[in-house]
Model the fold of this input.
Amino acid sequence: MREQKGITLIALVITIIVLLILAGVSIAMLTGQNGILTRANEAKQDTAVAEVVERINMELNAVYADALSGRTTFDAEYVSDLNKNLAGQATAVLTSANKITITGTGDYDTITGYVDASTNPATIDAADMPS
Done:
């Protein structure tokens, strides 16, 4: 008797079918509404917004510390320095001689916080993550 080596046509077809099923499942996991790529893009956007919120709050806390240490009025030069520190991620505005408001945008939402040095002690309204 002759010994046969190799694979049968049926085994080859079954292998191809299994590979097609695995490819279909993999593509579905990558794309789609709950896919890995969609969720990665959402995480990237959330991280960018959180970065803006964190930058705003960091500068608000610096202004708040200045207000608590005795500074009761702010000037245009102070606000200009704040805007340099914010590096274009947000904008500081002198609302009154003793109140600074910092506003930024993230994912189409406006993010705002302020420090008011007219009250004793000074008040701060920190920026929150948009919902």
Summary: The chain has a mean pLDDT of 89. Residues 54-125 form one domain. The longest strand covers residues 99-106. The radius of gyration is 29 Å.
